[in-house]
Specification:
The complex is a heterodimer of chains A (183) and B (210). Chain A is mainly alpha-helical and 183 residues long. Chain A has nine helices and no strands. Chain A is globular. Chain B is an alpha+beta fold. Chain B folds into two domains: 1-49, no CATH class; 52-209, no CATH class. Chain B contains four helices and eleven strands, in the order αααββββαβββββββ. In chain B, the strands form three sheets. In chain B, strands 6-8-4-3-11 form a five-stranded mixed sheet, with helices on one face. In chain B, helix 2 (24-32) packs antiparallel against helix 3. Chain B is flat, with a radius of gyration of 21 Å. Classes of the chains: A mainly alpha (183), B alpha+beta (210). At the A-B interface, helix 1, helix 2, helix 3, helix 6 and helix 8 of A face helix 1, helix 2 and strand 1 of B.
């Protein structure tokens, strides 16, 4: 960022402090989306926000920050091997990024349902359910209209419902079935 | 199950938030402070969480290595395992990182990280032999510490067939992005038994076991 006169600089830092208050939020976002080093990703996003503070919306910076973190995660994934069979992957390098990291310890059925969704659908659901964004904020973070986001969210919910129903159907012995057999 | 129930179930499964950032103020200072800002000195006295420093190797068409670089201390490794790398520092503070095999690259970067050198080191490894034998100079954006990297004995490492990572590899690129440096650019950690650092009379080395 360019140097500012002392008075201006204080104001700029105060403005940035408002953005920086979301550090924990974007760290969680990065972690829940499978970042290798969520702290580093969040820190990098904040450094970008500082350099481009004029571009960060004043009223609510979270969608802008999420968009930045998402781009950093995508960049990280692009540097991953396209397949697990490449020679370099045999050098005990880190495994490809997993959109839903196993350490989240999700309900297996729910995790399977989420993994079955496309990235677009999964992200739409998680922005609302995990990140507590409003549909308007989520739409901004994805660079799309509210209407388009609502359509996507609706379809994503329906798809996940179907996936969970299918998971339940193919589950060999559900707890309810067990109880029924016992009685 | 209705769509609303699905969202309720998803919300209930929300993972816990990231733990609170203890060194929030220090991280803020590191982000906004300019060189000479007294807040930087304060921030450095705290157990700072590093931002972009965790060493990592990313595989693909190329391999990226990221590490924080810093001072040099030299512990001769007592292990009987053959060394995977050697880091040599000259009296002028420049470093030569010799990685004997491509599989030792990660360990070398971890060692650099352990040295607390500051700046971000990016190394790109590609298939094929080196066009020009010998070490490559890591470009720096300022007059920071000079670092050279050498893969194999002459810039090329050949991993035999049947072994992990079989093929011919070379270092295609090496660069250092300056980070938050200490006051003199290099931090010399405490002495390690039987070793010296920053010698003005000769080179010292760090060897890493493979």
């Amino acid at each position: 960022m360019e140097s500012h006169p002392q008075g201006d600089r204080s104001a700029v830092e105060a403005r940035f402090a408002e953005v920086f208050a979301h550090l924990g939020f974007i760290t969680s976002y990065a972690r829940h989306r499978g970042a290798r080093d969520a702290d580093a990703i969040a820190g990098e996003a904040m450094a970008i926000a500082w350099r481009r503070l004029a571009d960060v919306p004043v009223d609510d910076s979270r969608p802008w920050l999420i968009n930045t973190v998402r781009n950093l995660l995508l960049a990280e994934r692009r540097r991953e091997p396209a397949t697990g069979s490449q020679s370099l992957a045999n050098l005990e390098l880190e495994a490809p990024l997993e959109p839903l990291p196993p350490e989240l310890e999700l309900d297996p059925e729910l995790a399977a349902g989420l993994r079955a969704l496309s990235e677009e659908y999964r992200e739409a659901l998680l922005l609302i359910a995990w990140d507590d964004l409003t549909p308007a904020q989520a739409a901004r973070s994805l660079g799309m209209s509210r209407t388009a986001f609502r359509v996507r969210l609706h379809r994503a919910r329906r798809r996940l419902t179907d996936e969970l129903a299918a998971q339940s159907y193919i589950s060999p012995v559900s707890p309810q079935q067990t109880n029924w057999r016992q009685t | 199950m209705s769509n609303d129930n699905v969202m309720d179930r998803l919300r209930a499964a929300r993972p816990p938030a990231a733990p609170p950032v203890n060194d929030h103020d220090a991280l803020f200072a590191q982000t906004v402070a300019e060189p000479g800002d007294p807040r930087l000195a304060t921030a450095q006295t705290r157990p700072a969480r590093r931002w972009t420093t965790r060493p990592r190797i990313l595989a693909g068409g190329s391999v990226g290595l990221v590490a924080i670089a810093a001072g040099v201390v030299l512990a001769i490794n007592g292990s009987s395992a053959p060394p995977a790398f050697a880091i040599t520092t000259s009296g002028d503070g420049s470093l030569l990182v010799a990685v004997y095999h491509v599989s030792g690259m990660e360990a070398a970067v971890q060692q650099l990280d352990a040295m607390h050198l500051q700046g971000m080191l990016d190394v790109e490894i590609k298939r094929g032999p080196a066009r020009v034998p010998g070490p490559i100079k890591c470009s720096t954006g300022d007059q920071g510490q000079q670092v050279q990297m050498l893969l194999g004995s002459d810039g090329t490492d050949v991993v035999p067939a049947g072994v992990r990572g079989a093929g011919t590899w070379h270092l295609a690129n090496c660069s250092i992005t300056p980070g938050n440096r200490g006051s003199n650019g290099i931090t010399l950690p405490g002495q390690t038994t039987g070793t010296t650092s920053g010698s003005t009379t000769g080179d010292t080395s760090t060897n890493g076991a493979g």
